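Hey, resending since the last one bounced:
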Amino acid sequence: MKPLAVIGAGGFVGQSLIESLVLDGSTSVRAVVRSYRNLAGLCRFGSAVDVRLANAEDPVALSDALAGAHTVVNLTTGPPAGIVRSTRTVFDACSRAGVQRFVHLSSAVVYGDVLRPTGDDDPPISKHWMPYARAKAASEQWLRERLDDAALDVVVLRPGIVWGVRSPHTMDLATSLAAKSAYLVDRGRGIFNGIYITNLTSCIRACAESPDRASGFYNVGDSERVTWNEFFQALGPALDCDPARLPSVDGERFPRSLGSTIDSIQSLPLMNELYHRLKVHVPDGLKAAIRARLEGRYRYERHAATYAARASVSRELWHLQRVRHKLPVDKFASRFRFVPPVTFREGIRRTLTWLDALGLVSRGHALSLD
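The structure tokens again:
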């Protein structure tokens, strides 16, 4: 493989991508991280990975960190207000450093609840309540205007929910299932627009390894059409949870609560930027103490004895469960001759094995590993 640099390498997707490359024997992987604390998860790779420090909003430092790379993968996240700025900076740094291919990770959330069949080249919805989705949509629009840049091959990937081993999203869902506090919107009839982590890293690698120009926008996801009820049914029994006993939430009108009102206020552009500006000044120790207080100081038993009578509904998960259509992935499959290496069934098996190692699988459940 030609030299590849990963910006945002300290995150979940970044570490998974680098791990897959190192295990396959690649010796031309460069990890670009913002600060020393982001190096922790990369230390296990030792000298197999070239690690550079550079802020995704510092064009000079970033250009130096990317020099010599053939392909750059942009996995940066951070506060929504900085997503567009960092996308522009990374793009400009790639141009300065002579990078040939820029792979940018967007998100399927730019399409909202996917109320109608949507193609890869359709623009994002014009308005979205979520600051993160608005920022990703704005970044897409900015890149779309530069898609035909002769010097840089721009590939924009649009994954759905990234699930599986070590996925924070999967951990949140598994914890709620074990605590019997989960819920289904419209009895789980909505589409789980997901992509197993190994399938996503394989998509990114297919882009990096393609010998031809690949510019364009691509939806990426698992092959199977899976509903939220099917996803919960696949995980629930091992976590001592029967999804049929979970409360069903109306999918037509969002159930308002104090928490959702606070979320709505926080999602306003000015309030969201102020929130993230103040957040960086709160010491990590204080954040951990507040989190522990909210979650409960001790949690010896992770499986609740009774089901929650009333669901505490988050606005983000409510919208994710309302998705009506599976995003098509045929364009990516055809362009890169790509077949996801991990099936839904195998992804569930791997995920449950991971959750079992973490002590989340019920002691009375016989985990099948075949």
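The two ends are 33 Å apart (CA to CA).

Sorry for the duplicate.
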